[in-house]
Amino acid sequence: MSKQTKLLIFILTVGAFGIINTEMGVIGILPYIADHFHISVSKAGLLVSLFALTVAISGPTMPLLYSGINRKKAMLLVLGVFVLGNIVSIFTSDFTIAIIARVIPAIFQPIYFTAAFTMAANSVSKEEAPKAVSKVFIGVSAGMVLGVPIASFLASTVSFQVSMAFFAIVNAVVFIATLVFFPSMPVKERLSYGAQLSVLKKPITWLSIIAVLLLNSAIFGVYSYLAEYLKTVTNISGELISFMLVLFGGANIIGNIVAGKLLTKNAIKTVVAFPFALGVVYIILFFTGQFTVPMAIMTLVWGIFAGIGTNINQYWITSAAPEAPDFANGLFLSSVNLGTTIGTAVGGLFISEMGTQYVILVGLLSLILSVVFILLRNYMNSLTKQLAR
Hints:
The chain is mainly alpha-helical and about 400 residues long. It has 15 helices and no strands. The longest helix is centred in the last third of the chain and has 51 residues, at about 240-290.
């Protein structure tokens, strides 16, 4: 990998950090936002849920619309929108304007990620593509891990506006780096909208989408309630809960590095083995959740698997539609966001009906169903290859 390629992938990684930081960092400052706008914390939570929902909707459509535009220009547009959105959030005293300043960047978010994943994959050989993409995912994990505590720290020590300024500064730095270091990247072979949409005619695409939706439901349906699980089942202090969340996030970064190597070596075996391995982790979690030390060990292992899972999801959809990479990455973003939404909703049902410990069941059920769709896709793939002979 040349120095220029390494630099571009590093900028893409920091860009992914800045954008996810803007999305997830707000979770750590919801109480401060609620105080600032004189609203309830649950209403402030709209800033998180509406962002995710907007990404799920714009995931397939926006990358499709921007697929023919110079990638450098498209990325600069997205970063510029994020910087402006953050600046508006700093100065507004109207909650409706704050929501608009979140939703508009969310509409554009998939353009950045689809371009980043496609560019990272195209900058190296086909065999090395999963490794390059896994580096961009490190930025995503870092945004989720560091974004929440950094934003929370800045809001608690200074003000929530300083947290929003931090988001704006990171995005502005990436904007400048992209402007200075990225070459112009016109799209050489522009695929028609029809050609890109035609990947939806393939059963293999739909089997991949459903598998990814279920895999993300398995991870985030449980992870969304990790703090609640640690509080009520493991019964530990707030400081220890914060430590466990950071531990999970740090492990997530390790998972991205491991995933890049596993998918490069043997992608199909990695995908098939994943639900079984994560299922074992969940069964152990279910039976040892009330003990602090085993729970800490399993949180570390689970975090590594969550990092691997994200990379598997991206690979599983893009490898099903290699002829339309931007659109496939958009489908990936939409699928994982829908998976998170469904998993979190079902997890909440299990908690209200059976108790917090049983949230693990949403993970196990999602994994069992995902195996069906993974094996179906593999069977269909081998059938297609046989017919092609």
